[in-house]
Amino acid sequence: MTTERTERVIVSGATSGIGRAIAIRLASRAAVVGVMGRREEAAREVAAQVEELGCKAEVLQADVSQPSAVEDAIGAFVAKYGGIDTVVSSAGIALTGLVNDFGLDAWDQMISTNLSGTFYLAKYTLPELIKTRGTFTAISSDAGTQGAQEFAAYCATKHGVNGLIKAMALDYGASGVRCNAVCPGFVETPMADQLLDGMSTEEVDYYKKSVPLGRFARPEEVANVVAHLSSTEAAYSHGMIYALDGGATSGYYSAPA
């Protein structure tokens, strides 16, 4: 006996890395996945992978830093599919630098994408999530729970995302909308590769050795956590700041020689 798929999903930042893995993972159970991203061609490639799993895919070309683009994309999705059950905010960028050297344009870009982008996605999907008693999951970072050298702007945005999710959990729990944040450490993605390319061998070794499990996460491991938190199996998981970092933020760790 098969169960009819009814879940309607939107994933931002779905064109690569963690967002792509989430879109594909949720396609295994959803009726339709809205593949949201800035690059239409990349979104269509992910949409094709989603459809290979027997799930409809809707390409939602939108830059999350632009509120009107997010609103229009959400409106078009709802008009076509009648509502939204699951939202995952995964779009994000990482730029490094010391505060006194960090460009104002770069700061604005970080805020508008990582923090405001999460807010815009929440603002325009929450009316539908209230109707369906759905879920909103944000991909944050371990940099949202602690500091990191030369990651001041990134840390600021991810701390903001965690605060936003906690407040949303308080505001919308009574409406049945569950809100959670997942905080990975380094994940094997193109964005992480770019960051590591700019580091010395010693810096890369430091980050690897600071993880008690001895490795970085894989995108699919983040996707599995999101799949759980947005499912009925996690019906009492709400307002969580879920550490997915191999134990790196558990406390001081001295790696074995």
TrEMBL record:
InterPro entries: NAD(P)-bd_dom_sf (IPR036291), Sc_DH/Rdtase_CS (IPR020904), SDR (IPR050259), SDR_fam (IPR002347). GO terms for biological process: monocarboxylic acid metabolic process. Belongs to the short-chain dehydrogenases/reductases (SDR) family. This is SDR family oxidoreductase. It comes from Parahaliea maris.
